[in-house]
């Protein structure tokens, strides 16, 4: 009789551990999926930027430095490997694009160019998608990290070496600042 009770306890414990393990795997895969969604949107953004710069080059002959800074920031963003590096590089790219849009204000012919307006609209739409993807990713990371840190799941997470994921956060205070618009 004692062996049956021990066997039942071991079976319940095994089912409990398997259940927690599978939950952690599911959350880890959701984080990976969320990151791939960010990656897709960033790729789209990186593909749009050269077209926008090329369209602007004909009009912005005196703004070479601004255009080069966008190109360099885009290259750095494409080469970033980790979540933190990507967040930092994307913040720098966003800053370069913000400066670019301020300079565009000095070129009324460029602002009226249909190709430029179309590319700008696509980039704005992509920026919104990137924002939503970042939010979704951070939500998934929070769920995984909460589960990894919570008792009793932290025991199973430790046994199977589950690691906390990194949030996609803005790196500099300037990125958090609301841009000034003046007329």
Kindly summarize this structure in a few lines.
The chain is mostly helical and 183 residues long. The protein contains seven helices and no strands. The chain has helices spanning 2-57, 64-79, 83-104, 108-112, 114-149, 153-159, 173-176.
CA-based gyration radius:
24 Å
- The level 1 CATH classification is Mainly Alpha
- Low-confidence segments: 178-183
CATH homologous superfamily annotation? LemA-like domain
**Strand segment tally:** 0
- Beta-strand content bin: under 5%
How many domains make up the coordinates? 1
Number of helices: 7
> Describe the biggest sheet?
none
Overall pLDDT: 90
Can you describe what's shown?
This protein has helices spanning 2-57, 64-79, 83-104, 108-112, 114-149, 153-159, 173-176. With 183 residues, it is mainly α. The chain has a single domain (2-172), classed as Up-down Bundle (de novo design (two linked rop proteins)), CATH 1.20.1440.20.
